[in-house]
Amino acid sequence: MACHGPPKPFTAAAPSPHVFELRARDGLARTGVLETRHGRVATPALLPVVNPNQAVVPPAELASRFGAEILITNAYILGKGSLREAVLRDGVHKLLGFSGAVMTDSGAFQSHVYGDVEVTNAQVIEFQKAIGSDLGTMLDLFSEPEHPAARARADVDETIRRAREAADLRGDMALVGAVQGALHEDLRERCAREVSSLDIAVAAIGGVVPLMEAYRFRDLVRVIVASKKGLDPSKPVHLFGAGHPLVFPLAALLGCDLFDSAAYAKYARDGRMLFPDGTRHASEVRESGCPCPVCSSHPMAQIAADERLLAEHNLHVSFAAVREVRRAIAAGDLWELVERRARAHPALQDAVRELRRHNDFLEEYEPLSRTGAMYYVGPETAHRPVLHRYRRRLMERYAPPPAKGVLVLPEGSRPYSDRYAAVVERSLAAADVHPVVKSVWGPVPLELDHVWPLSQSLVPDSLEPEAAEAAEVFFRQWAAGAGYAFGKLWEGEATLDEMRSAAPGPRQVDWNLLRVRATADLQFGRGAADPLLRGHVTYAVSKNTGKVRNVLVDGAHILSLRAEDGFFTLKAAGARRLQAAFPAPRLRIVVDADAVPFQREGKNVFAKFVKDADRGLRPGDEALVVSPDDELCAVARTAMNRREMLAFRRGVAAYVREGVPPPA
Ligand code: GUN
Ligand code: ZN
């Protein structure tokens, strides 16, 4: 969301050195800015792993040639080896020759590789403070994926104990707390909740390298989702050891903000090249097809024989992959990117198929809509959280209008109301039926076809059997509860006669009213249309399109229908009606009494002043901004869901559209 609101109502206190501020969002992904003592880091970010003993690419060049704003190195290795004295004397930035942010790791991974480490949690924290690390990591207990529940529980208990100890010892170093718990979703969630409630700057999901090495991406999804359920959403999340560009889009979609890559160097040592869709042996590549500076200015044979060039190519590809993720988040098409990338490896397809099992959680973070069309990528597209939401709301909120039967229209070009205009006109003249399209996204009653992404999507003419079957299932699930006596699939002229004898017409329909009612119920909740539209309803209609733009009741402007996404913008007069009809906390954001005068003036709602909010609100929803005693002070468009509004201490929770003065 790129909107910039009016000036901030309060002067913010001097920022603590590791605040995280959210910018754009998509899925659970977000672009943000992480402030450190060595500069601001745009997230999602890639942290190249620097081996202090032998850096293939000098850290200064990571900044100047690759744009690295942050890197990660290992405090355990620094503390044990020949560099100990130098790093204690000069600090880690000078030792590495890097003026950006430096995160250090603790040795937990070395204990996974070697079975043990010769350092305590307290020692490694003190050492990281002493060398001037910007983000120092606690010594977590690496829980292996195969650890049974009892063992993993012990790992988690000890990791939580050490996280508390580290938080006590951190001084002014920003702390990275780790989440362990193997594949046990309850343990992951508990560890995440306990660790992220401490005074940590970054939460890191650990113990996942063995999953990624074995391409167990479905398990990776389960682990990240379980962890995210417990994590404080206002804290950036690091995914330990995620260095292959193949996983960046998926991990970002699930809310990981930081990745660390040793892969660029390790793969280069083995003569292998990273690509956004996988890995290839340089010796088997004749032409890389890669636009990076290395590949565009060296013959392949020279690259293949040069570890440094291979590492540079790998870095270019990795940084580009993260930039592409940031672009997709800003554009709102990260789901498309994830689904497309999943074609690169069957194990990623399994991971994408796993996502729908977590739709109830993912849906809470999914923005209401975005600009631009939604592309069908494959049968999994219909299971995206935003479509899961649409189908659920259709069943829970939409009231099917009275008619005897349903005229079932096949999937086809959009908008459906244009495509089927003639068929519908003749059908309604003949029979008492309501037209509903059996779309791949789910049933679309014709009066809802303007709502994003039903019309604003591109679907191939020929569908995979799996997608066609899903459309059948979605339709049947809805039709079973819709209360119509019969359904007839449109198959041409003969259907007219059948419908006429089953339920003779004609049926009169006020399409504008039907659209407005159905959209209001779908957007604000079952029963919203009645109080919104009680009285004498008139419309302001677009001269160009003939479509409803503004809805007025008894002369007052209640709603505006947005051309971009087909949802309503709520006006103050509409908000008053909803407030009277729905008891608190429905549709509300409750702000601190101190903030009330600023909201009334039309200033944006800052997260730190939110006291409570409706659990049903989603990013992009219209909301009523109210005082602690439920006086309406503004109408706003949310930028966050409730969990986020309550967690974030910084940033805009909702963009105010219209302030509401106190009652006279
Ligand atoms: N590097 C890779 N995995 C891990 C992990 O689980 N914990 C820590 N501290 N570092 C890691
Ligand atoms: Zn290249």
Distinct ligands, ions and cofactors found in the model: guanine, zinc ion
Distance between the termini: 35 Å
Spatial strand arrangement across the major sheet = 4-5-6-7-8-9-10-11
Count the strands?
29
Major sheet: 8 strands, parallel, barrel
- How much beta, percentage-wise? 15-25%
Structural class: alpha/beta
Cα radius of gyration in angstroms: 28 Å
In the predicted model, the low-confidence regions spanning at least 5 consecutive residues are 1-16
The number of helices is 28
The general outline is: globular
Short description:
This protein is α/β, with parallel strands linked by helices and 664 residues long. It has 28 helices and 29 strands.
Could you name the key traits of this structure?
39% helix, 8-stranded parallel β-barrel, 6-stranded mixed beta sheet, alpha/beta, disordered N terminus, binds zinc ion, 664 residues, binds guanine, 21% strand
Write a structural description.
By secondary structure, the chain is α/β, with parallel strands linked by helices. Helices cover about 40% and strands about 20% of the residues. The chain has 28 helices and 29 strands. The strands form 7 sheets. It has an 8-stranded parallel barrel with strand order 4-5-6-7-8-9-10-11, surrounded by 7 helices. Strand 12 (about 270-275) and strand 13 form a beta hairpin. The relative contact order is 0.08. Bound molecules: guanine and zinc ion. Guanine (GUN) binds next to helix 5. Zinc ion binds near residues 288, 292, 294 and 295.
